[in-house]
Amino acid sequence: MALKGLKDFVEIKDGVVLIKDRSGLRNIIDNLIYEAVFEPDDEKRKALFILIKEIAKACGAVSASIQGLYEEMGRKYPGFTVPAINIRGLTYDVAKAIFRKAIEMNAGALIFEIARSEIGYTKQRPLEYAAVTLAAATREGFEWPVFIQGDHFQLVRRNYLSGSELETGYIKGLISESIEAEFYNIDIDTSTIVDIEKPSIKEQQRPNFEKTAELSEHVRQLQPKGIEISIGGEIGEIGGKNSTPEEARAYLDGFKETFKGTKGLSKLSVQTGTSHGGVVLPDGSLAKAKIDFDTLRALSQVARKEYGLSGCVQHGASTLPEEAFNMFPETGTSEVHLATGFQNIIYDSKHLPPEFREEVYNFIKTEYAKEKKEGQTEEQFIYSIRKKGFGPLKKKWWDLPADVKDPIMKELEAKFALLFEKLKVTNTADIVKKTVKPVVIKKQINEGLIKG
Length: 452
What we know:
Distance between the termini: 10 Å
Number of helices: 19
Shape: globular
Number of strands: 11
Strand content: 5-15%
CATH architecture of the largest domain: Alpha-Beta Barrel
Mean pLDDT: 94
Order of helices and strands: HEEHHEHEHEHHEHHEHEHEHEHEHHHHHH
Structural class: alpha/beta
Largest sheet: 8 strands, parallel, barrel
């Protein structure tokens, strides 16, 4: 067991982790994170995750806020778009692949994120997601700031309408849990409660900007001393149309009037025509996605020039054709969210054993049968629901042999390389180091944890 051998590489002095043998430690980190993820005792699992994060800090992989970089983008756009990557399954292996490619391409401007909904169906609470990501950084020798983000911390409209205080309280609790886990980047999405029945755009956006301000104040009250958490807002959920400059101004002006604090938002998510996961045709293939880059350009200019934000954020982009990704830096988009495309590479890889894929599909067809919509073909249903095959079967995915996982990771690495190049984040390590100064928040570790 890795934990029993850990004392050969790590020392705990007065509750602080010290590294004795970094090379030896990297050789056992794979086993250490595995033990932590699948430790059955809740308290011990939590203690192991915190230990792993402290080990990562001691090795130079420190969770950080991207705020400094985004403030620089607000002053002068440096010509690249930050990829924010959601990892739903094989998280440790995928994170290692990302870090390998980032080191190779000197890419420092990238975000690891997980959405409210994903936390549930992938069975990755914030502490686990942070520990797994930082373990991967430690294993690969990544010694730059690591940006971990709560994506789509979203008010669910039906929940909010039936009990606004309860739903708001849930998101506040999730924010608290995430900050404690060292998520120093939070995307608040209250665009679900925009009221399009109101006569003016400002009044339509009022529920959105008032609730964003309330939740942003909650973030500021909880953030550790010396850390300015990067907060994102959103205007594009309700209405079924592309966002407009008028909506952006109404929301951002309203937020400024309402928010009681010093630092406000660092970016704005907007709607430009995409959908999360893409649109699936009856045969299971994806419809060609369309995106309004003129809208994205106009809104990013408004966000940056009039409000000092880093720019606009594009969601649901991972299934776009490769040639589309060049357009994000060209239009001044500050961040792009990518998830389903990586999931598709894993599921559709020729290296994934057909019998394992069938096992997962049979599980989700049985477990989630009630979620099949009227008129959906089986192919459409499987595509829309297979994201839920990672969480309940997490151990089976982790236990896939190296000769299965390694070639799949090679496929993903090729995709990451292409995206990093097209989004122009190669050689961004220097601007990250210049604009982001990570603050190490040390947690006390019980010395007895590594004895035995």
